[in-house]
Automatic annotation (TrEMBL):
The lineage of its organism: Bacteria, Pseudomonadati, Bacteroidota, Cytophagia, Cytophagales. Residues 1-17 form the signal peptide. It comes from Pontibacter cellulosilyticus. This is Fasciclin domain-containing protein. Residues 56-187 form the FAS1 domain. SMART domains: FAS1 (SM00554). One of its GO terms (cellular component) is extracellular space. Keywords: Signal.
């Protein structure tokens, strides 16, 4: 009788374990959820594909509407940084104008836009981005800031003029995910 009771208990335990939905289905559901999430992300195109005509524009949207920043926008797209810069941030972006890019040696911009130079382009663009919001009136002379690429920039404040690594900040534009400081030079990492 004890053997029969033990056999029934073992069979019941096996049946109960095989019916446990948490243990068996967790892996399957997790895999399925990841597959669906990945498919949705691919279909949606990322954060930059969100259409919102009501909210304040983010840093990429503001730059994209500026006729003075077409080179910067092309570089951001080529470097694959559009989705990053459309996220919540907050970001402080030092945005060189087209004229600033024209000051670089001939062929520099064209060279950086080549697929094999994508890493160099990303490094330069990330040197123009600080995580956090810093308005023009919050800068101090000699202030050093760590940029996204790991490099450092130095702020200058003299007679009411603000510079970053010697480049003049000529305008500041608030955005939904930070602030853009328009600069008259391209900042190059050391």
């Amino acid at each position: 009788m004890k053997k029969a009771y033990l056999a029934v208990a073992v069979v019941a335990g096996i049946v109960f374990a095989s019916c446990n939905p948490t243990e068996q289905q967790t892996g399957t559901n997790t895999d399925l959820q990841q597959e669906i999430t990945s498919s949705e992300a691919e279909a949606s195109g990322g954060q930059s594909s969100v259409v919102d005509n009501e909210s304040q524009k983010n840093v990429v949207q503001v730059a994209a509407t500026s006729p003075d920043h077409t080179t910067l926008v092309t570089a951001v797209k080529t470097a694959g940084l559009v989705d990053v810069l459309t996220n919540a941030g907050p970001f402080t972006v030092f945005a060189p104008t087209n004229a600033a890019f024209e000051k670089l040696p001939a062929g520099t911009v064209e060279g950086l836009l080549k697929p094999e130079k994508r890493g160099d382009l990303r490094n330069i663009l990330q040197y123009h981005v600080y995580v956090g919001v810093l308005n023009a009136d919050s800068f101090e002379d000699g202030q050093s800031l760590g940029q996204v690429n790991g490099g450092r920039i130095t702020m200058g404040v003299k007679d009411g003029k603000v510079t970053v690594n010697g480049a003049n900040i000529v305008a500041s534009i608030p955005t939904s995910n930070g602030v853009i400081h328009v600069v008259d030079q391209v900042l190059l990492p050391q």
